[in-house]
Amino acid sequence: MSNPQFTFRQTTFTHPSLILTRRTTICRTTLHTQLAQLRANGQYDCFKLKWHPIFDDNSRWPAPLHLFWDSDVGKWIEGACYFLADTYDAEIDFAVRDLVEMIRSAQHDDGYINVHFSVVEPGKRWTNIRDMHEMYNAGHLIEAALAHRAYYKNDRLMDPLNRYITHIRARFGPDAGQLRAYPGHPEIELALLRVYSATGNRDAYDLARFFLGERGNPAGQAGQHFYDWEAEQRDEPRWKRPNSWPMDRSFWYCQAHAPILEQETVEGHAVRAMYLLTAAADLLNLSNEIKPSAAEAAVALAKADEWLAALRRLWSNMVHRKMYLTGGVGAVAQWEGFGIDYFLPQGPDEGGGYAETCASVGVMMLAERLLHADPVLNGEYGDVMELCLYNNVMTAMSADGKAFTYENQLASCDTARSEREDWFVCACCPPNVTRLFGSLGGYLWDYGALGEEGGVYVNVHLYTSAEVKFAACGREVRFEQKSNWPWEGRVEFRIKGAEGLDATVRLRIPAWAKGQYELMPSPRPGECTFDTGYIHLGPTYIAEHPSFSLDVHGFEPRFVAPHPYTNQRTLSLARGPVVYCVEDADNEWEENHFRDIGIKAGERVEDVWRDDRIRGEKYVALKTRGWQRSPEVLQGGGDGVGRELVFVPFYFRSNRGGKGQMRVGLRDDGR
Amino acid sequence: MSNPQFTFRQTTFTHPSLILTRRTTICRTTLHTQLAQLRANGQYDCFKLKWHPIFDDNSRWPAPLHLFWDSDVGKWIEGACYFLADTYDAEIDFAVRDLVEMIRSAQHDDGYINVHFSVVEPGKRWTNIRDMHEMYNAGHLIEAALAHRAYYKNDRLMDPLNRYITHIRARFGPDAGQLRAYPGHPEIELALLRVYSATGNRDAYDLARFFLGERGNPAGQAGQHFYDWEAEQRDEPRWKRPNSWPMDRSFWYCQAHAPILEQETVEGHAVRAMYLLTAAADLLNLSNEIKPSAAEAAVALAKADEWLAALRRLWSNMVHRKMYLTGGVGAVAQWEGFGIDYFLPQGPDEGGGYAETCASVGVMMLAERLLHADPVLNGEYGDVMELCLYNNVMTAMSADGKAFTYENQLASCDTARSEREDWFVCACCPPNVTRLFGSLGGYLWDYGALGEEGGVYVNVHLYTSAEVKFAACGREVRFEQKSNWPWEGRVEFRIKGAEGLDATVRLRIPAWAKGQYELMPSPRPGECTFDTGYIHLGPTYIAEHPSFSLDVHGFEPRFVAPHPYTNQRTLSLARGPVVYCVEDADNEWEENHFRDIGIKAGERVEDVWRDDRIRGEKYVALKTRGWQRSPEVLQGGGDGVGRELVFVPFYFRSNRGGKGQMRVGLRDDGR
């Protein structure tokens, strides 16, 4: 099983590429400002296990403010190692090494590593696996160790984490004397499966598989749901519940209301759901990869078909009923998670609009895994991955790389303006953006040797300018793409080193292109087929045209209406994979968060190329005509005031000052 | 201060009257079936203070299932006494007398009356005033006692309740040694003010005024919010909270997040809010009534202008931003209460649609009180009162008087069909409908002597066929109205016994009439003025025309669109005060709860008179053309299937079997 976190090293981005622009900013700026934040806020030194004033804060229960610090450090290390692989930076290198030594020094003799339970509540390890994030933190440290190992080619961080895995494996599992627990916040499962994949550590695999299979067991521990049993041990009545639980026993908050295979809809905290399903997809990927000759029968997944069905079912429920136009998921702030089907308010003043950054990073992880785990190469996975990338994920960081969003509402209001922050008390999102962009090369494509007769394949999921080198059939194959995506649909490809090999190339045609594209040179009948979102170019075509180009249509601006069952009277603009918004920075007359602005689907929309020198950004803005009508004017049937509206990409919002007024879906005024 | 609960006796309904039809059903059927339910479920005998198996049920915290039993009995007695005043019924009479003796026997020597704390937790009286409904139950018993006293002309029930009031007054208040508590569920406040008004009991007034003024005090008890202090006494952490509280310290749930005068928006449990504001309006009413000569200076309300401002502010927030088209309020099921502004989903599958029956009964109470408390006679109060009556309240009982709704969603879904139940575990709504209809005569109008020069006035708020007799200036004045409201707009009036007196008559012109009406005979210039929703007919006109008629326009069917900020793409039909819905009983082809049906505002709508002999109902149904289009057809721009749609009054839903599919707001397909 190869994940983007391993394979990204084989890809190099080239110009022009919006992804490369962001990667350069992160490498030059973000890694350093995030490091400065870690130093300023206490995380950097936390593994020294000294007391910090924040440890006295009891304002939040059950998870105190510093409970995620281990993971903050882990995620930063992971992102740093990905970028070091691209560009050496002495300050970053030093900090990684320093942090690794501190983590090593914080390990207990029995392998345990956790700041809170070492310093603040040393006697209470593993007494609240539902809420206290020990396994979540462990998971991120493990992912850091894998990134560290890949870059530094040593086990200074992997060693202690392997010992920690052994510690956990001994305590949790199906055997006598073990607790049948599973983490309240999934994460360790996917980390463990990556450890197994990279190092063959069977403890890691067994533990992940146990966690995934045991989750939601109504009678796992002493005939009780583990979280009920555990709460009883803590002497907590069922009524005492975290603020994120609307009701007692809201186990759906952490996807533990039923075994995964029995879950009909995607529920609860969106990040947890995405990390969990990513791990489930990895479990399936590992099972799929078993060769007849392999001795790895242990990773054959019982009920593999049911795991595939569950993943498809939950994916489909999310994508078709619970996802914003921007790729955001998790509409409800209270549990940072999924609401009921079609419940997608644009912002807090409409009753939702959370759409956490980490959740869409998680959607991208899941989508990428499903491109492998699902035997059908389904363009929807790639479409959604791209949607998240250019919208809900990219909007989470400012163009200068210094400010972030946690929530990504589609409309501002007075109590939630469209603004970014330098950092957060719970700082999960900023380093998640960092590590996603660090490993993004691995999301572009997959490739390798094909079959037993000496063929190679490249499946291209994301378009940009980049090159990948990989070994296949004893050769080094190089595959290049060059384009001005996401602004223009023309992509030029070149394959080298595959001469004489049967080469198959599959190219995703986004759903918004409505099947409209051109290949140059044109394939002869039979040389190109189209199926479930991908065109398949066979060996004959590739052999004849090692350089060829694709022109994807659909880059004219389009009006997008929400699903009828959302019952929303809104209309948005999109162009290619990019979703647009209006901001007061361009529309300075706006005073009411664009609540009173309507647009019409038939109206002309004009492309305007912009080169924002201050922000170093080139993008296509859109212009169309709208109508400003107050409720009174509207109900009276009046025409209101005509307005020339300027739209910018949603990801570009909140980069140019202004009043923080923004909206994606405007009132639909019909045709 | 006179409330409808006192004045209704002066009004007699005549035919034709939809209200009279319902009253007859309740009198003949509902009182008996509800009595049978009380007998079958344990409430009837609960004041015998014997153990009942349900007392063993610990499944609900903090309020066990039987906690409301005292109020169930109280509300039934209250409703029964109202109807006995109209029609004697030996079985009902016997049951009231029997229940009263049982209540008397259940009183402790110190005056305390409460089933739960007498039988189940005798040591825990007054330890959880936030959740345990002692005062709520007391309030309903007090209202029962007032109704009983008015009908039976004795104090068999009033006496023990007066002793209970003395008991409560001794424990709670601002003095040393008293607790600065106030009930989690308001109700006792309005009951106490009615006691004061009927009997002059100053303890009752002082207690109500203290409760209303103290509510939401952030530092009332030992420098703490009372509910924080009280929870500490119970050794409960702030995290342990009822299921209705989305967050810890959700004091807004019971309107205790801030003092009433400082509350900017109407929040929390809708019934609690309505009962509370009704009491606040009564406090203001009592203050307004002080005559210069009266010795009642103690009921002069400090900051009366601020109380009026708060009542207007909270009313306006509710009516303009948080009320359904049907007069339902409280969109959110979890706390049975108000959501954010403009958050009005039609049903559970859209994320809300609770609209509890009791809440709209409460809106009617509040509206009626505000017609007196507000120095401006504002037609909006009357409009909303009527809206609730003919829609969210009337829909809560079946035409046969035997089945009820608790929640009144505007659209059904598979998990919440449009159906009624015989009874509820928490049986607040059915007897609330009973007592509302029992006292409904008091809501129609107010009247009396006017000024010091021997004049009389009648303000007519609701139209139907009825007659009122009242004493004024030493005479008996009779005022009649006759109409086929709510189907036809013509109302004939006659005043008798006012000869020689200056008589002023004010008639509400509903907002949906858009100011269109005719008086016959036509008034001369200056004889009729129109202001804030009422026409004012002066003494000259009335003296000349003791019989006159009003013809209110606006009974043609109209399309109603929601406020633009609800962002909903729906359209509904209404006619006069009646809001319509589609049901599968008329539209038998429907299989998807009318989610796929659109209507157009320009389309022709036809009135169809129906005489439903089985249900004994005459009403106007509506017919128009709609378009059935699935999401796929709609997104593809297809025409779909044309459908002849039949609409019936929302109040008439779920009377004729069917599949329980119903919807008020259909997809708006434009013009």
UniProtKB/TrEMBL annotation, chains A, B:
InterPro entries: 6-hairpin_glycosidase_sf (IPR008928), Beta-AFase-like (IPR049174), Beta-AFase-like_GH127_C (IPR049049), Beta-AFase-like_GH127_cat (IPR012878), Beta-AFase-like_GH127_middle (IPR049046). Residues 458-515 form the Non-reducing end beta-L-arabinofuranosidase-like GH127 middle domain. Residues 17-440 form the Non-reducing end beta-L-arabinofuranosidase-like GH127 catalytic domain. SUPFAM superfamilies: Six-hairpin glycosidases. It holds the Pfam family Glyco_hydro127C. GO terms for biological process: carbohydrate metabolic process. Residues 558-664 form the Non-reducing end beta-L-arabinofuranosidase-like GH127 C-terminal domain. This is Non-reducing end beta-L-arabinofuranosidase. It comes from Colletotrichum orbiculare (strain 104-T / ATCC 96160 / CBS 514.97 / LARS 414 / MAFF 240422). The lineage of its organism: Eukaryota, Fungi, Dikarya, Ascomycota, Pezizomycotina.
